[in-house]
Amino acid sequence: MRVYVATTLADLAGHVAAGAVPPGAERFVPADVEAEYDALMAAAEASAALLAGPGRRVVVVADVAGEAEADAAIPLRRVVAVHADAETLADPAAHPEDDLGWYATQEIPGLLSGAV
């Protein structure tokens, strides 16, 4: 089961430090493969709502075994990718339909440092 988790760069740094995405983070689970883009965009909109001002929307994508794991803490080893805006947006809420860039898990440190 694929799960899309709305977050921010600051929170992503905390998830990396903790080794897991906490259970309280807002999650979106698509009903099927065809609904994955809608889940991604819903998570992106929720990410924009988490930002108090300019920033980058961030969505963590993880594969979990089932609904119980989807609601629990998600170990970083379950994360398969991160989607984020390519640059800081002055008003992230004004761009709910813009596509996010795709980042492999090994690119997370560069994303957090601002290198990508």
Number of strands: 7
Number of domains: 1
Strand order of the largest sheet: 3-1-4-6-7
> For the report, how would you describe the main beta sheet?
5 strands, antiparallel
* Structural class by helix and strand composition: alpha+beta
Helix content: 25-40%
Q: How much strand content do the residues show?
A: 15-25%
Shape verdict? globular
Radius of gyration: 13 Å
In whole angstroms, how far apart are the ends?
Answer: 28 Å
Low-confidence stretches: none
Order of helices and strands: EHEEHEHEEEH
Number of helices: 4
Average pLDDT over all residues: 93
What's the helix and strand layout?
Layout (H helix, E strand, L loop, with lengths): L1 E6 L1 H10 L1 E2 L5 E2 L7 H15 L7 E6 L3 H5 L2 E2 L3 E6 L16 E3 L4 H6 L3
Antiparallel strand pairs: 1-3, 1-4, 2-5, 4-6, 6-7
Brief write-up:
Helices cover 31% and strands 23% of the residues. It has helices at residues 9-18, 36-50, 67-71, 108-113, and strands at 2-7, 20-21, 27-28, 58-63, 74-75, 79-84, 101-103.
Please tell me about this protein's structure.
- The protein has 116 residues and is α+β, with helices and mostly antiparallel strands.
- The N and C termini lie far apart (28 Å).
- It contains four helices and seven strands, in the order βαββαβαβββα.
- It has one domain (2-113).
Structural descriptors:
globular; alpha+beta; 5-stranded antiparallel sheet; 116 residues; 31% helix; DUF6912
